[in-house]
Amino acid sequence: MRYSAVPARQLRSAMLAATVLPVLGLAACQSTGPMGEVASIQTAQGSSENISSLTSVIDRNPRDPEAYNVRGSAYGRAGDYRRAIKDFDQALALNPNFYQAYANRALINRYLGQQPQAIADYNKSLQINSNYAAAYIGRGDVYRLAGNSQQALQDYERAIQMNTTDPRAYAGRGLVYQTTGQHSQAIEDFATTISLAPDQPNGYNGRGLSYLALGDDDNAFADFNVAIKLNDGVAESWTNQGLVYEKRGDKARAAKSYARAAQLDPNYKPAVNGLSRTRSGGA
Q: Which CATH number fits domain 1-18+201-283: 3.90.950.20, 1.25.40.10, 3.40.1010.20, 3.10.20.30?
């Protein structure tokens, strides 16, 4: 993530990791069809019980593309990307115009690091339905993470112009603004993100980082604390809190925050580096 009080490299890493809805936000099937059974069990998302139930639905309706799309989404949420891809492939074999399945497969390809395939799937989804905001947002995320800020901004703004209520559109645009140092605009977008998803920590983390970049430590600290209160299992939130403590010269509290972040995610470099700077004997 980007901020002014610590090295830009660390800020950049933190901001990229604070993407809104880091868990798979796979699109539920939206077309009509014999999906009453599926709709009634989707709330379990990626649980083994839900996947088993969805498999039973497919056994009874082996030619229903929506059933494969929903089970693919469940596999994606469970982290079983190979089976997710297989189900989306089958959904598309049964219905080549299933634009939601293209967008869902694109998201899995993105998580697998297969960015060209992800872009191709988003393009196909939008070719079928040029008004599908979720595909613009997803493609924008791929462009943003690849450092293509201009194309990412265009996709987020296209979704926003369609009056989407998906908080990811505003969060994504806010991250682009942050990347280019437009922190006032970023704060506005993160505020909208928060209004659309008040129970998610990412909007608060994003807004807090822009507050911090503008020297508004008090509002930044308040946002990071809210993020922790909403979900105390997010390493980025604790790392961001540590940044404020460190900027204030309170290395003891900063070290505790960084240590908690590193405990949650031992591979999260901003937390590990922050702990190294602030723990006893650190530079």
A: 1.25.40.10
